[in-house]
């Protein structure tokens, strides 16, 4: 109550979360909490990051700081995503997604943070582009003879139920 208000320039949250690429050359931090966190199911991101989908933590650039590795960062303009993607030029880890329509905002892979970012990834975008081989949390069972390997049940071929007749007569 008696503490004087901090000047605007010193405004910085008390908690930071640090992230780094696989080889550790690139390190960065954000102020906690991040603004939001979301799952990106777009085909452009799937290809660029070679994963079924990517979970991003989004924050204002003024709450983000690159701590090390500027020289190692490789940038690529992705015309499909209308965004700049960054990667570590040494180990290849995807780093940042900066969408052109949000120039003051930066998205960072949730997987690169070892500590909490203050936001649960509860939002899904571009679900219409989701790969049909993405595991969506359905039940798994052990694969007989292969300890540690779990398998999914076969997927239903179609979302629409078969017509009544097809239960008794094979369709062409
Ligand atoms: Zn690296």
Automatic annotation (TrEMBL):
- The ranges of region (Disordered) come to 144-172
Output one GO MF annotation. carbon-sulfur lyase activity
Q: Which SUPFAM superfamilies match?
A: Mss4-like
**What PROSITE patterns does the database record attribute to this sequence?**
CENP_V_GFA (PS51891)
InterPro entries, alphabetized: CENP-V/GFA (IPR006913), Mss4-like_sf (IPR011057)
Q: Which Pfam families match?
A: GFA
Top-level taxon in the UniProt lineage:
Bacteria
Where the record annotates domain CENP-V/GFA, the positions are 17-124
For this UniProt record, the keywords arranged alphabetically read as follows: Lyase, Metal-binding, Zinc
Q: Does the keyword Lyase apply?
A: yes
The entry assigns this protein to a family as follows: Belongs to the Gfa family.
In its UniProt entry, what is this protein called? Aldehyde-activating protein
Recorded source organism is Caulobacter mirabilis
The major lineage groups are: Bacteria, Pseudomonadati, Pseudomonadota, Alphaproteobacteria, Caulobacterales
């Amino acid at each position: 109550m008696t503490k004087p208000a901090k000047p605007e320039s010193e405004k910085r949250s008390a908690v930071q979360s640090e992230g780094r690429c696989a080889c550790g050359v690139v390190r960065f931090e954000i102020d906690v909490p991040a603004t939001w966190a979301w799952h990106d199911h777009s085909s452009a991101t799937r290809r660029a990051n070679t994963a079924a989908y990517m979970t991003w933590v989004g924050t204002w650039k003024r709450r983000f700081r690159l701590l090390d590795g500027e020289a190692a960062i490789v940038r690529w303009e992705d015309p499909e995503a209308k965004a700049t993607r960054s990667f570590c030029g040494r180990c290849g880890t995807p780093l940042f997604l900066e969408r052109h329509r949000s120039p003051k905002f930066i998205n960072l892979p949730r997987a690169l943070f070892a500590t909490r970012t203050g936001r649960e990834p509860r939002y899904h975008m571009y679900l219409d582009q989701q790969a049909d081989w993405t595991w969506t949390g359905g039940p798994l069972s052990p694969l007989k003879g292969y300890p540690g390997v779990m398998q999914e049940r076969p997927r239903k071929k179609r979302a629409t139920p078969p017509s009544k007749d097809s239960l008794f007569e094979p369709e062409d």
